[in-house]
What does this fold into?
Amino acid sequence: MTAVPHSITAASALPAGPQVWLAPRLDESRLAMMAGLTRDDEHARCNDLKRISDRERFLTGRLLARQALSHASGETWPCTAWSLIPGPNGKPYVAAPDGNLQISIAHSADMVAVAVSPFHDVGIDVERMDGAARIEPSVLSDRERRVLAGCRDASAEFIRLWTMKEAYAKRTGAGVGMDFAALDLDWVPDRIEQRIELGDCTLDCRTVATSRGTYSVALAWTGGAPADWRMRDAA
Ligand SMILES: CC(C)(COP(=O)(O)OP(=O)(O)OC[C@H]1O[C@@H](n2cnc3c(N)ncnc32)[C@H](O)[C@@H]1OP(=O)(O)O)[C@@H](O)C(=O)NCCC(=O)NCCS
It folds into this structure.
């Protein structure tokens, strides 16, 4: 079925930079509304997930992505109009109705994050910060390992570093195939907000305290326009 827009999308109506949406994971009963929103392949992927919490994260991500895309289009297209397809490495793409919009999705524990960007590639990652994370030295550069060794809370700093590396990898679509140790980030420990410029890519990292825990959220994007961060009760 061809979706009918409320009005014709003008490229100039799109936001200049990326929009970030954070939302709590919805429970399955509230996700019943997804029935008319997802594609058959998304239903199949969801049904393959054994744990309820995984299905809830997946579906909340798909709902939030469609809400974010509709918002970025100036509500030109309703949530039901959006078709997302996985690219070769699993990176999702907007197939219709407006392929000018780029999308990235992430989930961790009780939080889901989505980034939408006009024209330019975008990557997002979110990781829960409560509790001690196991530090994985193989994904760090020599310099990052040295800085981390002197940190007051090395576990929290590792999570911040990792979210930035994953956001960077998800922007390019490299995913797990990336050489994470080769990405040497000149980050400043103990900051709840920071920005790193890497050539034409900007990396923002924020520590966000919510009623569902504390999360590190990182956004990677090109294009230089400012990012717009929002929190949503994804209802
Ligand atoms: C798939 C990967 C991109 C992210 O996986 P993850 O951290 O488990 O999960 P996230 O919630 O952050 O991201 C999952 C989303 O990324 C998207 N995604 C998958 N592959 C992607 C790729 N190659 N590029 C961009 N986005 C991708 C999908 O939208 C997916 O959500 P969906 O399945 O609901 O659509 C990959 O980088 C990965 O598995 N990384 C972890 C592996 C690792 O090395 N861990 C140890 C280091 S401490």
Summary: The domain at 17-226 is CATH 3.90.470.20 (Ribosomal Protein L22; Chain A). Helices lie at 40-48, 52-72, 142-149, 154-172.
